[in-house]
């Protein structure tokens, strides 16, 4: 079975560098897909309250029989619950059938509402209560991190942001590094929409190293030090996506993929999304 490396967080905990994202899985399909992924050796699942599939993730975990401490489960606080995080956390834990998650994230900063600092202080309490082992944020731009860190006592362990070859968000990654925050890449494959997998740069590297374009792009994330959890509903792609720890990209191949930056978002802009 594939050995997946751990990344160490600023709170002393570790996170598997690779997992499964379950955004936009068809209702009624998530339990089967998560069960298949767990069979294949996936141990890290990234869900969110707004994905409406925490209960299916929880059912797959319960049926798997895998010891809880071998799993890494992330969920996220939805925007409309930023003033109500304690109740939202309880609801997520009930659906997941868990007494703690490994990582709880504020899903978006929603700067216009300006409630994320208060939400973060609640997440600090949730962590102190043992309901979330690590806490972090998602879609936080440098100015949001600066404000959060200035007005609270725990630095986020993780910032989960949109990153793929055509949207690399280097300023946001630099801000994460400044605070010792590990970067997670969401939509690591550009959700299959942008040019990330079809660029000749990627397809030529794939041919040269004997891997698929998806494996090359995922390997680029891993070598950048990012944590990834590509989504797929298909067993053969679940298998393909995890086979990225038996090869490496040379410096010139990494640099060529770095050169694909094009500012192409597949999701909303965190500075305006509410
Ligand atoms: P992704 O980049 O993982 O792309 C998934 C799509 O890529 C699949 O639906 C499929 O069409 C294609 N694909 C998957 N494997 C492939 C392969 N081997 N070859 C070719 N095509 C392949 O997109 P995503 O699901 O948006 O992102 C991954 C995860 O990130 C989500 O499931 C979710 O957990 C997380 N996410 C978080 C946020 C956030 O705001 N925090 C936003 C979006 C996604």
Summarize the structure.
With 274 residues, the protein is of the alpha/beta class. It is 38% helix and 15% strand.
Topology of this protein?
Layout: E1 6-8, E2 14-16, E3 20-21, H1 30-40, E4 44-46, H2 54-64, E5 72-77, H3 85-96, E6 101-106, H4 116-128, E7 132-138, H5 142-150, E8 158-162, H6 170-178, E9 182-186, H7 200-209, H8 213-224, E10 227-228, H9 235-242, H10 251-258
The structure holds nicotinamide-adenine-dinucleotide.
The site of nicotinamide-adenine-dinucleotide has 26 residues, from helix 9.
Explain how this protein is built:
The chain has 274 residues and is of the alpha/beta class. The chain is built from 10 helices and 10 strands. The protein has helices spanning 30-40, 54-64, 85-96, 116-128, 142-150, 170-178, 200-209, 213-224, 235-242, 251-258; strands at residues 6-8, 14-16, 20-21, 44-46, 72-77, 101-106, 132-138, 158-162, 182-186, 227-228. An 8-stranded parallel beta sheet has the order 3-4-5-6-7-8-9-10. It has a two-stranded antiparallel ribbon with strand order 1-2. The protein is globular and about 50 Å long. The protein starts with 5 loop residues before the first strand and ends in a 16-residue tail after the last helix. Bound molecules: nicotinamide-adenine-dinucleotide. Residues 21-24, 46, 107, 138-139, 160, 186-192, 197, 214, 229-232, 237, 240-241, 267 line the site of nicotinamide-adenine-dinucleotide.
């Amino acid at each position: 079975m594939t050995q997946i490396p751990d990344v160490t967080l600023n709170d002393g905990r570790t996170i598997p560098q690779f997992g499964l994202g379950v955004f936009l899985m068809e209702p009624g399909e998530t339990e089967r897909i998560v069960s298949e992924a767990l069979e294949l050796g996936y141990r890290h699942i990234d869900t969110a309250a707004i994905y409406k599939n925490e209960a299916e993730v929880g059912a797959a975990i319960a049926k798997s029989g895998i010891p809880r401490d071998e799993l890494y489960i992330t969920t996220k606080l939805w925007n409309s619950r930023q003033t109500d995080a304690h109740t939202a956390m309880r609801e997520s834990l009930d659906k997941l059938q868990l007494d703690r998650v490994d990582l709880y994230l504020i899903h978006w900063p929603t700067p216009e509402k300006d409630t994320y600092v208060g939400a973060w202080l609640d997440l600090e309490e949730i962590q102190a209560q043992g309901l979330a082992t690590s806490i972090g944020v998602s879609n936080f731009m440098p100015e949001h991190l600066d404000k959060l860190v200035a007005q609270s006592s725990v630095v986020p362990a993780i910032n989960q942001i949109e990153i793929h070859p055509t949207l690399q968000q280097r300023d946001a990654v630099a801000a994460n590094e400044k605070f010792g925050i590990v970067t997670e890449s969401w939509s690591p494959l550009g959700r299959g929409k942008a040019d990330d997998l079809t660029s000749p740069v990627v397809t030529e590297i794939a041919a040269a190293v004997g891997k698929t374009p998806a494996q090359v792009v995922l390997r680029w994330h891993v070598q950048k030090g990012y944590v990834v959890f590509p989504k797929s509903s298909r067993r053969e792609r679940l298998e393909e996506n995890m086979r990225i720890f038996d090869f490496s990209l040379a410096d010139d191949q990494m640099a060529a993929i770095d050169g694909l930056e094009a500012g192409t978002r597949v999701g909303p802009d965190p500075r305006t999304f509410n």
